[in-house]
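Quick one: CRAL-TRIO domain-containing protein from Oncorhynchus mykiss, structure tokens please.
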Amino acid sequence: MLCWLREEEMSLQEFQQRVGCFITHVDEIMQQEIRPLLAVDIIEQLHRQFALLSGGRGKDGAPIITFPEYSGFGDLLDEDFQNVVTYLTSIPSLDAASIGFVIIIDRRRDKWSSVKASLTRIAGAFPGNLQLVLVLRPSRFFQRAVADIGMKLHRDDFKMKVPIVMLNSLSDLHGYVDKGQLTCELGGNLEYCHSQWIHHRTAIENFAVTVKTTAQMLQKFGTDLSETELPNDVQYTKDLLTTHTEKHDKLKDELKLAVQQGTTLLGCIKEQAAKSENHKLNPDEMENQTTVERLLAQLDETENAFQQFWSKHYLKLEQCLQLRHFEHDFREVKVSLDSLMDTLTFLSDIGDCVTRVEMLLNDLNTLEEKAQESLEKAQLHALHGDQLIQSNHYAVDSIRPKCVELRRICDNFTNEAKKKYDILSKSNQIHKGIDKVRCITEEAPHPYISDRKDTGLLEKLFA
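--- reply ---
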């Protein structure tokens, strides 16, 4: 039994390790180390739309972050700006982010002061690698002239180690970035809906949280199971089996809901590509799809690991219940057999006359008939124990001695009953012979019997 428990502990340890790896993989998939914030944490700031990650890429695959026209840009709190930019730079894959980001600042309807404020903020707070900064300068003649002079005077103040390119028009912008990677506001044909982008981001992150939380629930459930002591009676074991099964079924439902959530989300993302034959998912949307697929795969692996562990635990509880039933029935059968053996032991095998001997034989026959049911039950119970042993029950060392004990008592009873029967049968014959001799002797007229009469007496005695 101890060996079996060690095996069970090892299976629990393996399960905990696997679930722990799944949780780590979820964090890696969601890049938790570099993304301390979730969309829901900064949902209000994201809705302001002062910075966008539309999914476009530069010519070498660099992610593009756009700062569209936003009248309240100068009034943004530093914390709000920092949180949004940090969040946006954490979304592209590490490979894409390592190339460096292309920044597009659209200030065509604004003033030089806004351009300067934007560049200053980006230079001081942008958390990612910069590759290129493209600025659509103010379109009004005076502001454009001021912007040109301002850039010459303050370029070094921005402390950027990457080129800052001032652009006069969208045509100039298209010389640096392909139209297919720009939204319609920038003269491109990249489809982008900010509200849908926020919805997808929150849905993906909610799903990741669900996957992680579900895995943690499974991990805790496994720990609780391992710390549960097996009951010593039938009813408590039944109750424990029912309780654990209910918890398992509840967790299975949670897993199903999580899978449904992920499957629905994946369908929504793929639906974008199905809008038209020519539409293709942009790199960010492709990464979203890959993220959800990986999370679903992790969820599937977690479910498989949990089911394997549960199967072992459920088998343990079932075998525990079998053992408690076996022990309970063993005690009942043992009490019955011990009582029969006591009765048999106290049944005398000595009688002083035929009547007494026949009475003892009758009592013995009655006892054997009475014992037949208990003996059969004991043999069947021992056979049931053999079946448990053959099924690789964990408590073989406890079951086998009880089977041996039952068969030993049955054999002892049978042998002892046969021994008493043989003794009483012989005693009965002797007493009957004595009675015959006595009867013949009483019929004789003289104590001395002639040879002829003596021969007749012997013939009658042994007739």
